[in-house]
Request: fold
Amino acid sequence: MAKRLIPSLNRVLIEKIVPPSKTSAGILLPESSSKLNSGKVIAVGPGARDINGNLVPVCVKEGDTVLLPEYGGTSVKLGEKEFHLFRDEDILGTLHG
Amino acid sequence: MAKRLIPSLNRVLIEKIVPPSKTSAGILLPESSSKLNSGKVIAVGPGARDINGNLVPVCVKEGDTVLLPEYGGTSVKLGEKEFHLFRDEDILGTLHG
Amino acid sequence: MAKRLIPSLNRVLIEKIVPPSKTSAGILLPESSSKLNSGKVIAVGPGARDINGNLVPVCVKEGDTVLLPEYGGTSVKLGEKEFHLFRDEDILGTLHG
Amino acid sequence: MAKRLIPSLNRVLIEKIVPPSKTSAGILLPESSSKLNSGKVIAVGPGARDINGNLVPVCVKEGDTVLLPEYGGTSVKLGEKEFHLFRDEDILGTLHG
Amino acid sequence: MAKRLIPSLNRVLIEKIVPPSKTSAGILLPESSSKLNSGKVIAVGPGARDINGNLVPVCVKEGDTVLLPEYGGTSVKLGEKEFHLFRDEDILGTLHG
Amino acid sequence: MAKRLIPSLNRVLIEKIVPPSKTSAGILLPESSSKLNSGKVIAVGPGARDINGNLVPVCVKEGDTVLLPEYGGTSVKLGEKEFHLFRDEDILGTLHG
Amino acid sequence: MAKRLIPSLNRVLIEKIVPPSKTSAGILLPESSSKLNSGKVIAVGPGARDINGNLVPVCVKEGDTVLLPEYGGTSVKLGEKEFHLFRDEDILGTLHG
Reply:
């Protein structure tokens, strides 16, 4: 059984969303149209401490869909699935709609 | 339907203003005359924390026209539209008139 | 009509003073004599925050004549005029007399 | 008799877990399937001080199974056994299940 | 008439002291004997702010004779005279006697 | 008579332990078996100040046996003996048993 | 008459001790035996400010014999004598006996 990872500090575990290459009707989508580097938040760390030792919680939460930077992140294989670990401050924002 | 992005921390989502190459009367404008690197603020993040953990709000607001630095910013495609994400402190100022 | 720029944070908008190449009587001035890299303050930002989030006002004010460093500054064209944006802490001092 | 090490500050002493190359039934596991860079926490330091001098405890504890970054860590040989020292903030998270 | 410069922040305006190449009796001084890189303080800035926004005054004052580092400083020509601007913390000390 | 050194700030004076190349019974030890980079604490400094000026004491004390990093440290010859100066935060931990 | 230097901030004026090349009985000392990079404290600055603006006094005092790092320090010639300026935190410790 794949292990479960609880990220440390302000790290966020994300499963990248692979954009569909065809529409639901099976029509091939142009390569560039849907290349949004996004993912779903699987787990978040407890947050990091500011310089006065106060715990600063992570800005995103489990289930959020987030926009990811083009580079960065650490890939982590848990069982057969691939995930990525990002620092909270590197996540560009949350996607809605 | 294109997704809506809420930027994280002190990031600002901007739609660049493409300067008109002709006057309203159709006369070609010299290349250099109107090349102001500016854009419109579409959405702003909640702000970043200072080292004591206090939330420092973003200086610009939705609808502002802002002057952008020549370099930097992350390009983001939402649906068919291209936007750019800048950090609040990298925006040079607001344009008026 | 040229746009008006309100600089952000502790940025200062400056119009460089082009030193006269001739005296009022029309005599050519030696190249080196008057090459003071100075300018007039057109607009100032609201100031930057120190690490505790307090707003630290800009040290110079509109109308001041200031001494500029040899390098640095961002050039900005507003309408037909060229200006430069400097950070408050990069301005070397104010010129009097 | 091998010496016992109490790590200093926020250092963590870890014994790496060598993933099994065969299943319990003796079947050779594909090279990539189980290559999780993980280890068991053997000992933790007292924690590091934040800039105000307060002691910030380490986030992991003895017995935890942790996910390690691909690089970094200091290898330490105590008697015949090899261990690795990591800084608390470099540990990616704790593994469960 | 040469302009007067009030340095900004913790900058210090200094007029370098050119060591005499001959004694008062006209005897040529050996090149190395008097090569003390020193100068006179002409004007000082109001001081810089520490990270809590408090103004930290400059350590030297007008009229002080100071020892200067071998490198650094910004040269400033005011009228026919050459001056140098140093940051307060780069001045090595005050010379007496 | 060799001079006595009181280290400054959070520096620690250490005498490196040269691992025995033979067992007490005179049998040659394999090169790698005992190569623990360790040493004995001879003297410690008063500690360093955190950014608020509070004195943060050194974590190790005279007589401790400590694990040293592979690199770093300043070698100091006092009389005929060689010692090494390390910063407190570079010491990996204390060895016991 | 040579000038007197009062160091600024946490700088320390030191006169290096040139180790004797012969014993008092005139016997040539081996090159390495006495090469302790040390010096006598001639004058100290008032101290530097921590980030809250509090003055942190220098750790050494006039007359102390100190151990100096192999590199660093600014050489200063006052009259015919050569001195060296070090920052307080670069001094390795005080020598006694």
